[in-house]
Specification:
Layout: H1 2-31, H2 35-68
């Protein structure tokens, strides 16, 4: 159980790290007026944010199921 918590925390930390990297890359692309690259990075950033929200949703559902028991 505890190792699953650590795995989940590691996965969320990794997603947050990837989001920060994409945000930095996006700022650089926008500053350099790289329109196509900016669009690709925006899409990648949205996907990472979606994965993060799904991760948080599954953790919430797991917590709620524990409370139901």
């Amino acid at each position: 159980m505890i190792s699953q918590d650590y795995d989940s925390i590691d996965a969320v930390d990794e997603l947050l790290r990837q989001i920060r990297i994409k945000e930095t890359q996006l700022k650089l692309a926008q500053t350099s007026n790289m329109v196509y690259t900016s669009e690709v990075l925006k899409n990648q950033l949205l996907e990472l944010q979606h994965q993060l929200s799904e991760s948080n949703d599954s953790e919430l559902h797991a917590l709620m199921s524990l409370l139901d028991d």
